[in-house]
Amino acid sequence: MIRRGILAGLAAASLGRPALAETWPARPVRIVVPFPPGGTVDILGRLTAAWLTEATGQSFIVENRSGAGGNIGAAAVARAMPDGYTLLMGSPGTQAINAHLYPNPGYDGIADFAPISLVAEVPNLLAVHPSLGIRTVPELIAAAKASRLAYGETSIGGSTHLSAELFRLQAGIEGEHVTYRGSAPMLGDLLPGRIAWGVDNLPSILPHVRSGALVAVGVTSRARWSGAPEIPAIAESLPGYEVTAWFGLLAPKGTPGEVVATANAALAKMLATPAAVRRLADLGATPIPGTPEAYRDHIAAEFRKWGEVVKRAGIRLE
What is the CATH number of domain 123-236? Predict the structure, then answer.
C-alpha cells in the first residue's frame, strides 16, 4: 500500500508538469508574434520558425496576436502551459519598455519568461515622402520647424516610437504625431504621403527606399549600416542619438531547461549558417545568438535603459 501511495503521488504530481523535455518537439510548436503581419517582428518570427523547423524536423508555426503595443500576445504566452509548445518572439517593447508605459501590461517582461536566445538586431530607419524634396536630417529639421509635419511610427512604446520621439526632442521640433499598430498601417499612410515622415525597423521599410517610393534620411544606430553605407546615421547630425531594436525567442516561465537548451542550440546552429547570415543582411539585420543567461541580462539592462529614456523624454500613453 505504501508503494501504491508513492506511485499515486508521483502520478498526481506529474499532472502539473510539462511533458518530458527529451521528447521536445514531438508536435508542432506555436511562435506568437505580438504584432501584425508585415513588420520586422513578424519577418524575423517567420524566419526563426523556418530555421527551427529545418533544424528539428518539426513544424514551427507563427501566430500573429497583436494589440496594446504587443501586450496581448506577450501576456498570452506568459500564461501558456510551460511545455515548450508556445513561444514568444520578443522585442524591446514587449520585454523592456511597456512596463514603463502601461499601468498593467498583464505580464512581467522579465519574471514571467524563460529566455531562449536573442536572434537578431536591427537599426531603425527614418524616411520621408519624396514629394517633400528632403534628403538630409538638417533639411527635415528645417522643414519641421517651418511647418508642423505629420509623422508616424509603428508601435506605441516600441523602439520606433522612441526613435521618433527622441529625434523630435533632440531636433527641437514639434509635429502631428500619429501612432500605428504595425508597419503595414504606417506605411499605408507614408507611401501615399498622408504623413510626411516615419520611423520603422530597417527590414520593413528598406524595400520601399530601394524602390524609390521613400527617401531614407538616416539610420538610428550610432554608425552607418554596412549594408547601405550611403545612408547617414542620424547621430552625424544629432550627436549622441542612438536607438537599435533587438528580437529574440522566449518561453513561459517554468519551461524545462532541456527544452530551452535544445531550442537555443538549434537556433545557434542555424544563425551560424552563411545562408542565414546573408538573409539577415539582406533585411538590414545582424545575427546575435547567445546563451539564455546572456539574453536575460540583456533584457534587464534594456529595462533599466528604456525606463530612464521614457522618464527623461516624458513619454505618456494617450
Answer: 3.40.190.10
